[in-house]
Predict the 3D structure of the following.
Amino acid sequence: MSTYKTMVIFATDDQSHEGATLFADHCKQVGISDKIKLLVGCYEGVEEVSYIMPLEAFTEHVLNIGLVHDQESFLHVSGCNKAYAVLHYQDGREPLGLGSMCQVKEDVARTYPAWTYRPDTKAWYIAHKANPDHSKEIGPYAGS
């Protein structure tokens, strides 16, 4: 049995302060506040507050409670060292593999139509169809 956990990156339908408070209250009530991290993301050129959490917690406590009903898709990221990113659509379309999540500098991330920023680690990520073991293929990384 694998010890790696698939994570889900998602936004909630209500991006207002009240919506964020409602979501935070729900997470606290069901005991998953420690399993979720706040992100800032961009999807199809639109910046929004988003979150990352283990798939199991997302499926059990978030997916069917009405807070993400209007979201087109959710990004599943494998827990293995390649961090494979796959969009899963709510309307039944086939999942779409995007490549691997790669850490980049902010200026590189912002050239892509979709990116993720994790404020707690100050790390920027994009999904890119390249071998993540060859990070120099897509430009300067945060560590370079």
Q: What stands out?
A: The two ends are 35 Å apart (CA to CA). The helical segments are 17-29, 55-61, 106-109. The first helix runs from residue 17 to 29. Residues 7-138 form one domain.
